[in-house]
Structures are given as structure tokens and as C-alpha cells.
Amino acid sequence: MSVTERPLTDEALDTLFRQARTPQHWSDRPVTHETVRSLYDLLKLGPTSGNCSPARFVFLETPDSKTRLESALSPGNVEKCREAPLVVVVCHDPLFFEHLPRLNTEAGLRDWFAADVGLSEETAFRNGTLQGAYLIMAARALGLAAAPMSGFDAYAVEDSLLADTGWRANFLVALGYPAEQAPGPRAPRLAFDEACLTL
Questions:
Q1: Of all helices (H) and strands (E), which one includes residue 159?
Q2: Which terminus of the chain, N or C, has less C-beta within 10 A?
């Protein structure tokens, strides 16, 4: 039986989905550099179209880096980012296709994307977002909690933190270990018949 044919245990499913919560408060336990490296080494294995791997990640852990972020945040996200041990700016590289010659053996793929700005931007955004979701799941798998956020000025973040990279900011994820507290009730989710079609 292959790995993909073996269901995860209930404990693993609880960790990744059923019992996981977006924390409201964080403990002061730091997220080590080794954990950050392990996090990336997991998330990078998630599939992207043509193995294009356009996501880029900026890990903000120092007070100075978080201060540079604050002016771009909506008011409701300032304290959330300030309190979190680590804030990740999930980005994508519009020039991701420059790496395709070593990521994908298909001939001419780099030139195909380079010649079509609309296609390359759509591909970078879609797959970069997908990799941001892998970040959240990898964090949970490593015992971290994740709080994704979209309340910020992307252009201000790019000017303040990404100017030398050319990367585009997509969304933020606060990461860390949650403060000890009983999780509140889960917010409602749509039922299968409301969100799904079987054709």
C-alpha cells in the first residue's frame, strides 16, 4: 500500500483539521530557526502546476521588522502581529519562470511564461496562494498554530519589506504556540450540499 493510500490517524486529522483553531493569543515561546527551516522543507513538497513553485516567504521575527509592517496593517491586525512570535509575509515571485529550467525538464516552458505576462501572473498568484495554504498545514503538523490575515496594504508591504526582491505580497500568517486556553467553539462551516456539486 502506498503512502497516499493509507489514511492518517484520527490524532493526525485532529491536529491538522478537526481540533485546530486560529489562536487569539500567543505564548512567549519562540519559534526556533530550526523549526522555520523544517516548516519550509515540508511546505515546499506540496504540488504546484508544473512544479513552478512561485511562492516566497518573508519571516518577520524581530521587533524592528514587525514595526516596519505595522503601518501597512489594518487596525484590527496590529496587536495580532505584534504579539505573535513570528509573522510570515506570503509572497509570489512574478519572475518565477526563471527557475523553471531546473525545476521542470519540459523544453521551452520558461519562454512560454516569459512571453505571456497575464498567464505568468495568474500562475504565480494561484500557485503561490496554494503554497501559502501548505505553510499553514505544515505549521500545524509541526505543533504550531497559524492565523492567516488579509487586512493589510500590500503595496506598502512591498515598499517597506520587498523592494529589493520584486516579490508581490499576497497574505500574512502569524505563527507561534498558542497561549494556554480552552479553544472556543468553532465558527460554523457550510454543509456539503451548500458548498459542493457532484456531477
A1: helix 154-161
A2: C
Place of cell 500568517: 173
Confidence at residue 162, expressed as pLDDT on a 0 to 100 scale: 96
Give me the mean pLDDT over the 149-165 stretch.
Answer: 96
pLDDT tens, position by position, 173-188: 999 999 877 677 889 9
Q: Are 5 and 170 in contact (CB under 8 A)?
A: no
Query: Phi and psi for 78 in degrees, rounded to 5?
Result: -60, -55
pLDDT at 1: 58
pLDDT tens across 49-61, in order? 999 999 999 999 9
Sheet containing 55-60: order of strands: 55-60, 86-92, 168-176, 145-149
Cβ 100 vs Cβ 110: under 8 Å: yes
Q: How far out from the chain centre does Cα 74 lie?
A: 19
The C-alpha cell that represents 4 in the structure block? 497516499
Query: Cβ-count burial of 150 within 10 angstroms (0-12 exposed, 13-18 middle, 19+ buried)?
Result: exposed
Domains and CATH numbers, the chain: 23-177 (3.40.109.10)
pTM: 0.94
Tell me if residue 178 falls in helix, strand or coil.
strand
- Helix (H) / strand (E) element for 126: namely helix 117-141
* Rounded CA separation 110/50 (Å): 11
- Mean per-residue pLDDT, 76-84: 93
Asked if 151 and 56 count as a contact pair (C-beta separation under 8 A), the reply is no
